[in-house]
Amino acid sequence: DDAADAVFTVNVYGAPANLAIDGGAGSNMVFHGDRFETNESFATASDIGVAPGVHVNRLSLFQPGDEDWYRFEVLRGDDMEVSVAFADSIGNVDLQVFDDTQTLLGSSTTTTDDELVVLTGLAAGTYYLRVFSPGGDPNVYDLAIEPAITSSTRVFYVNDATMTAGHYTLAPGSDANDGLSATAPKASVQSVLASYDVGPDDLIVIDTGTYNAGSAVKITAPDEGAAYAGTPSGSHFTYGGSRFELEDADANLIYGLMFTGCCGTGIHSHEGIADNSTDNIFRGNTFSGPSTGILINQPDDDLIVDNTLTGVGTGVSLTNQGDAVIRGNEIAFATIGVRLAGSLSAPLIGTLVENNHITHSQFGIPTRIARRP
User: Fold this and answer.
1) Are 280 and 221 spatial neighbours (Cβ–Cβ below 8 Å)?
2) CA distances (Å), 317 to each of 15, 27, 42, 211, 361, in order?
3) How far is CA 101 from CA 118, 260, 369, in A?
4) Which of 47, 133, 233, 320 has the CB geometry, 3.0–4.6 Å to 165, for a possible disulfide?
């Protein structure tokens, strides 16, 4: 009774977002802004990465009238479930999902714990979430985006040994884990490839952290066709050789990874004994430090788009015969921006290089004209 008017601070570690603390009648709970503030509008939505696979806990509507907006990327068409988990006894929370034109795709507005929106037939693209309280109530919540029951996508989770600024996982990584849930992530991409046959229905989400296994992540024909996604906070591959190597591996999608550290090659795609590596997409990645950002021997319908390459020897290098599209890349402080090394006997027929921004580099796109004797 003597403490009726006192102020107490309670620190809770490792608690779920729907933890409720009842101070009794007339008590006031104080909430604090989460790491994604300020994100109170469509225009200021925080990037939470690639879905399905997003899991972010301990978010908050930290003051009366606060609302949170997030954006996420869908790499391949899919069905998925968006959910927020919270205690309605603290304050009601609702959920809305929009496309990139701010058209409402789905909503959940119950007056019970938790909200769930099921989205079917989503095309690849950018989508937005709005989490808010219709009564302006503060609250805390967990956010998840997972494959719907009708989805064929299998998500594999990878995390390093830390829990810093995570977007996908809820535990440190270990290669002893199965990698099939956010709470049991693998520690390396190579362990996923060694444990499973992955393919076009698989998405490997790689959480914020640093990855250096002392060798390349090697993708070969038995594991071709999967998508690999990093986080907006940085999924760094720092091995001094080839960070990702594709050998006779087709239709892979590598998105949002960071290839940092000195020397070697960020992504090296090349032929195998049986065939070329074909139809691969390298999109939205960041390269800083490698001798070569992206090296493709015998390109074949590859797409290299919207990457950022800074402080590399050569940004993008194509060798031997084949074709590719190189579009919308930002290249700076390179020795060579884009290198096209075809020949009369092995021409790069059909290669399209357009709308790239190459600055502060010794050579932009050097050309070589081979003459017949």
Assistant:
1) no
2) 49, 64, 38, 24, 15
3) 19, 34, 46
4) 233
Task: For residue 170, give both structure tokens.
Answer: 């809820």
The two structure tokens encoding residue 37: 């503030």
Taking only the tens place, the pLDDT of each residue in 213-257 is 788 999 999 999 999 999 999 999 999 999 999 999 999 999 999
Residue 322 near residue 348 (C-beta atoms within 8 A) = yes
Three-state SS across the chain? CCCCCCCCCCCCCCCCCCCCCCCCCCCCCCCCCCCCCCCCCCCCCEEEEEECCEEEEEEEECCCCCEEEEEEEECCCEEEEEEEECCCCCCCCEEEEEECCCCEEEEECCCCCCEEEEEEEECCEEEEEEEECCCCCCEEEEEEEEECCCCCCEEEEECCCCCCCCCCCCCCCCCCCCCCCCCCCECCHHHHHHHCCCCCCEEEEECCEEECCCCCEEEEHHHCCCEEECCCCCEEECCCCEEEEEECCCCCEEECCEEECCCCEEEEEECCCCCCCCCCEEECCEEECCCEEEEEECCEEEEEECCEEECCCEEEEEECCCEEEEECCEEECCCEEEEEECCCCCCCCCCEEECCEEECCCECCCCCCCCCC
pLDDT bucket at 164, cuts 50 / 70 / 90: confident
Maximum Cα–Cα distance across the chain: 101
The b/e string for 294-312 (b: 16+ C-beta within 10 A; e otherwise) is bbbbbbbbbbbbebbbbeb
- Dihedral of the alpha carbons of 337, 269, 290, 342, in degrees to the nearest 10: -30
And the tokens for 72?
């996420």
Of 66, 65, 11, 68, the closest CA to residue 42 belongs to 68
Report d(CA 339, CA 358) in Å as an integer: 12
Record the tokens describing residue 192, joined without a space.
């996923």
What's the whole-model pTM score? 0.90
